[in-house]
């Protein structure tokens, strides 16, 4: 999260209304929550919550959820969606690089397409590690470097689109090194969104996603990593 918003709530809403947006969000959400595991009764932090998609889903799954974002407009959209869906979440303004929470405050932290836009991802992950309780889980979801989607986004950046000029695309190895540099133990990295950014093709190929993810097939546009904070010695 940076001082200047990357996208607006209305852009998120318009994307979600398209067939490609609906399919892509469904695929990404499934892999994130597969890695997160059961959330009932757990303290969950969603860093860079945006308009609340992952925070709301975590709350529906029984988590005690706090969503954090640096953009007041996004938090306003998240509050509106929470009211509309009758979902209880706590929403707070703040930055990933300086989380306004005490040490070991959360059992699960989600950070989905956040580090691609954060100026200092190492600082952000160190903060996440700090607020994670020993034995707690981090699930990152990031834009993958080696995909048709990334090539298209780079082209749009070259053509002057501000959002993608600021984005960093990640490899599996980079994400593992990033979490390990903060003292976390990387457990698994899964790919998702193997279809190109074309709605009819996405609809046809989306049913193959679980199998392609298990095979670690190349070309995923989205990478999801689960890491764990080591437990304190007994």
Please characterize this protein's 3D structure:
42% of the residues lie in helices and 21% in strands. It has helices at residues 9-17, 19-36, 53-60, 72-85, 121-131, 148-158, 162-165, 172-181, 199-205, 209-214; strands at 43-47, 64-69, 90-93, 106-112, 132-143, 185-192, 222-228. Helix 1 (9-17) crosses helix 2 (19-36) and helix 2 runs parallel beside helix 9 (199-205). The chain is of the alpha/beta class and 234 residues long. The protein has one domain (9-228): Rossmann fold (3-Layer(aba) Sandwich), CATH 3.40.50.150. The chain has ten helices and seven strands.
Judged by helices, strands and strand pairing, the structural class is: alpha/beta
Q: Please tell me how large the radius of gyration is.
A: 17 Å
Mean pLDDT: 95
What strand order characterises the main sheet?
3-2-1-4-5-7-6
The fraction of residues assigned to DSSP E strands is 15-25%
**CATH class wording:** Alpha Beta
Query: Could you please say which CATH topology applies here?
Result: Rossmann fold
The number of helical elements comes to: 10
Tally of domains: 1
Overall strand count: 7
């Amino acid at each position: 999260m940076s001082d200047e918003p990357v996208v607006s709530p209305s852009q998120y809403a318009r994307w979600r209304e398209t067939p490609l947006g609906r399919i892509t969000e469904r695929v990404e959400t499934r892999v994130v929550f597969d890695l997160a595991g059961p959330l009932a009764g757990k303290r969950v932090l969603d860093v860079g919550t945006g308009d609340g998609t992952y925070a709301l889903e975590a709350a529906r799954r029984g988590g005690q959820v706090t969503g954090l974002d640096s953009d007041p407009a996004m938090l306003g959209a998240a509050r509106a969606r929470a009211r509309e869906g009758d979902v209880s979440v706590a929403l707070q303004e703040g930055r990933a690089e300086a989380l306004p929470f005490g040490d070991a405050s959360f059992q699960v932290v989600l950070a989905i397409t956040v580090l691609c836009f954060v100026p200092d991802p190492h600082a952000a992950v160190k903060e996440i590690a700090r607020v994670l309780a020993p034995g707690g889980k981090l699930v990152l979801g990031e834009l993958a470097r080696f995909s048709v989607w990334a090539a298209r986004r780079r082209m749009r950046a070259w053509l002057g689109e501000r959002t993608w000029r600021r984005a960093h695309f990640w490899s599996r190895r980079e994400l593992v090194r990033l979490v390990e540099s903060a003292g976390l133990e990387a457990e698994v990295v899964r790919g998702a969104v193997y279809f190109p950014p074309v709605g009819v093709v996405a609809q046809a190929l989306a049913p193959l996603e679980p199998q392609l993810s298990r095979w670690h097939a190349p070309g995923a546009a989205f990478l999801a990593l689960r890491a764990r904070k080591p437990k304190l010695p007994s």
